[in-house]
Every structure is written in C-alpha cells, then in structure tokens.
Amino acid sequence: MSYLLAFLVGGALCLLAQLVMDLTKATAAEILVGSVMLGAIAAGFGLYEPFAKFAGAGATVPLPGFGFSLVSGLIKEMPKEGWVALFSGAFKATGAGIKAALIFGIIASYVTRARA
After folding, report:
1. Backbone dihedral region of 56: left (phi > 0), alpha (psi from -120 to 50 degrees) or beta?
2. Percent over 70 (pLDDT), the chain
3. Does any domain span residue 72?
4. E strand or H helix at 71, and its extent?
5. What is the domain range of residue 100?
6. Average confidence score pLDDT of the chain
C-alpha cells in the first residue's frame, strides 16, 4: 500500500508542476526553483515533515523533497553548530544524494558516449 501511496502523491506533485508549466509562461528552471523553495518553506514552518511521513518517497523524492532535506538538515544541525550550520547543515543532509547524482551522471555519460 505504501508503494501505491508514494506513486500517487509523487505523481500528483509532478502533475501539479506540469500544469503550472503548461498553464503559465513559467520555464522549467522556474518550476524547479519554485518547487525546491516551496518544499523548503513548508519544512521551515513544520508542514512538510508530517506530509513526508504520510507519503514516504512520494514526498521526499520529487523536488519539494530536496528543499525539505536542505532545511531539515539545517534545523537539525543548528543546535549543535550554531550559525555554522547555515553553511554545513544542508550539505550534510543532502551530500550523499548529490554525490550519487554526479557519479551516476558521469557513468551514464561514458556509457552513452555523450559529448559536450
């Protein structure tokens, strides 16, 4: 059941982004930044964590989930590191995912023989 819920919630978030792109003159980059910002703002107000617990990967994998990860890492590290957490907390929370994306992107470029 959790797979179905994740699929439906993630699909709904992607559908919403696609509708905004189709019905407005927003570019893909604006949708990307807006989605990450909405996830970060919702996380800052404590609204995204209950949503993420309810929807699982359907809420954490799409772009608003990245904003949630950034802010939740910052909030988690702030009591330990103080203001230094502004620079380190978000990177600790999202570092593994960013590294994986870079490594798999490089591997995919070699496999498909991409050219710059």
Report:
1. left
2. 97
3. yes
4. helix 63-81
5. 2-111
6. 88
Neighbouring C-beta atoms of residue 111, cutoff 10 Å: 8
Distance of alpha carbon 51 from the chain centroid: 14
pTM: 0.77
Position 83 confidence tier, pLDDT thresholds 50, 70, 90 = confident
Domain total in the chain: 1
Give domain status of residue 48, yes or no.
yes
Is residue 33 a contact partner of residue 39, using CB atoms and an 8 Å limit?
Answer: no
Per-residue DSSP letter, 113: T
Instruction: In whole angstroms, give the CA distance from residue 116 to residue 109.
Output: 10
Per the rule left: phi > 0, alpha: psi between -120 and 50, beta: everything else, 3 is: alpha
Q: Please return the burial class of 90, using the count of CB atoms within 10 Å of its CB with bins 0-12, 13-18 and 19+.
A: buried
Number of Cβ within a 10 Å radius of residue 92: 14
Domain-located, residue 37: yes
Residue 116 is assigned to a structural domain of this protein = no
CA distances 98 to 55, 89, 91, Å, are 22, 14, 9
